[in-house]
Amino acid sequence: MRILPDPIVDARDPQRWWPHPALQAQWWADNYPVEHPLEPHLRQPTKNSAEPVDPVDAVHVHFGFEHLSVAEVEDFVAALQERHIPLVVTVHDVDNPHLALPEQQADHRRRLGVLLAAAQCILTLSRGAQEEIERRYGRTPTVVAHPPIVPNPQA
């Protein structure tokens, strides 16, 4: 598998985090026409490049979708489905630690629910998260245990 490079959105600060434009359905419409979504040799150059775009085997979402509305997530998922592009979702946080208000968490849960309902593969980092995803969303993710970040003082 080859990982496609991220586009540089801000040339003044190319390392700055930014929401990936591929989370927007319009990005897929602009770059991967439905007529020939998976056959790069049949695709015409897009408005964003002089060359046909690289093929996409799967889209893997970890996080960075909290700025989207539920409707935008639904549109993103529909764009992938129209193009027969599998969605892989890794759930790092069942509840988003960066969202403080209950209504923000409720929106996060709805967005995550849309992604998980559409995902062909779901990954998470712990058995506890797996159980919570099963309880909330009725999907059983594969656990890929996260290695320790901080050394265990008792080891």
Automatic annotation (TrEMBL):
Q: Give the molecular function GO annotations.
A: glycosyltransferase activity
Instruction: Give yes or no: UniProt keyword Glycosyltransferase.
Output: yes
State if Nucleotidyltransferase is listed as a keyword: no
* Keywords assigned: Glycosyltransferase, Transferase
Residue ranges of domain Glycosyltransferase subfamily 4-like N-terminal in the record: 55-149
Superkingdom of the organism of origin: Bacteria
Q: What is this protein called?
A: Glycosyltransferase subfamily 4-like N-terminal domain-containing protein
What is the species of this protein?
Corynebacterium heidelbergense
The taxonomic lineage of its organism, from the top, reads: Bacteria, Bacillati, Actinomycetota, Actinomycetes, Mycobacteriales
